[in-house]
Amino acid sequence: MKSKIKKIGVMTSGGDSPGMNAAIRSVVRACAFYEIECLGIYRGYEGLIEGDFKEMTARSVKGIINKGGTILKSARSKEFRTVEGRKKAHEQATAAGMDALVVIGGDGSFTGAMIFSEEFGFPVMGIPGTIDNDIFGTSSTLGFDTALNTVVECIDKIRDTASSHNRLFFVEVMGRDVGHIALNAGVGAGAEEILIPEENLGKERLVESLKRSRQSGKSSSIVVVAEGDKTGDSVFDLKDYVEQTLPEYEVRVSVLGHMQRGGSPSCYDRVLASRMGVKAVESLLEGKSNFMVGIRDNAMQLCPLDQAVKGKSKIDMDLLRVSDIMTT
Ligand code: F6P
Fold first, then answer.
1. What's domain 144-261's superfamily in CATH?
2. Alpha carbon distance 89, 318 (integer Å)
């Protein structure tokens, strides 16, 4: 049966991530392929409320697959959390002839999309765009792979100076309240210790492990600390604690911060974005709504939004076991 959908809106929302532009490109190109109009919505839900739209054609998205960030900008909207705000958004969407919405973002953005869809019967589809990789229903979120490569490159550079000065470095990475970036990049960069919020083995165990590293002949060490880790009050608190208990160590801290959110997306993220954008548009045209497009066992799979927003992706316990072995 021919779909009633004639015009799809696409937005990016929440913290940006590399690969969002590739996903925008894919949604726009898939619309063009199926002869559906596409509206770009600037600044997420803020722009939806304000009617800040732009017609998007296949040519509008040329030359962006390799660009970090998002040409549609992103924002977090307080007003959209109100019924009045969502009503304005719905009026703007219908006035512009929009029949469906693709939201590229994280769990907060999907919660808004789900409520909006339920309140107005408006078809929505989510594409997981966040470096945190913390969304249930997909083994990879857009930007996670690129962020890992960025972090590993940074830690490799830090290791050069750490080993030149026989120093211990605490490197704090993003991930909000999950440890996927820390664990994967820590293993990839050969960190001596990895501290994640999913396990808290305490400061004393950390000190014992550092002592063992020292005794095994390691003259410098890298400890990767997820920003949500609770071993210490902060990465600086850990530094002070180690300096007091292991005076032979010279300790420094490096907080990688927002550079993890930028950069040209990896090939993996570009391909993932291209697959997800097509799946999102085709699912809407098949009459589906209120799902997130995820990748599981390397296949595009739909996950109901109410499950995607409730769950958090679990830490890979086998990788945690491998990381323990690697730090022998
Ligand atoms: O969710 C992505 C993320 O980069 C988190 O890892 C981090 O804690 C947060 O966004 C930072 O938010 P903001 O960009 O608003 O400072």
1. Phosphofructokinase domain (3.40.50.460)
2. 44
| Nearest protein CA to atom 14 of ligand 1, as residue | 15
| 74 Cβ inside 6 Å of ligand 1 | no
User: What residues does each domain of the chain span?
Assistant: 7-143+265-310, 144-261
Q: Which residue's entry shows tokens 């440890």?
A: 179
pLDDT band at 125 (very low <50, low <70, confident <90, very high): very high
Which residue numbers are catalytic?
132
Among protein residues, the one with the nearest Cα to ligand 1's atom 1 is 15
Question: Looking at the predicted structure, is the pLDDT value of residue 1 above 80?
Answer: no
Confirm or reject: Cβ of 107 under 6 Å from ligand 1: no
- Greatest Cα-to-Cα distance within the chain, rounded to the nearest angstrom: 73
176 CA distance to ligand 1 centroid (A)?
Answer: 6
The tokens describing 253, both together, are 């801290």
Residue of 133, 172, 174 with the most ligand 1 atoms within 8 Å of its CB, for mutation: 174
Strands 7-12 and 37-41 turn out to be parallel
From 176, 178, 260, mutation site for ligand 1 pocket: most ligand atoms within 8 A of C-beta: 176
* pTM: predicted TM-score of the whole model, two decimal places: 0.96
Per-residue pLDDT reduced to its tens digit, 207-229: 999 998 888 888 899 999 999 99
CA of 174 from ligand 1 middle (Å) equals 7
Q: What is the DSSP letter of 265?
A: P
- What φ, ψ does residue 240 adopt, rounded to 5°? -60, -40
Nearest CA to ligand 1 atom 10: 15
Q: For residue 64, what pLDDT is reported?
A: 98
Structure tokens that stand for 240 in this block:
């002070």
Residue 222's pLDDT is what?
A: 96
pLDDT of 147-172, one tens digit each?
Answer: 999 999 999 999 999 999 999 999 99
Q: Give the CATH number of domain 7-143+265-310.
A: 3.40.50.450
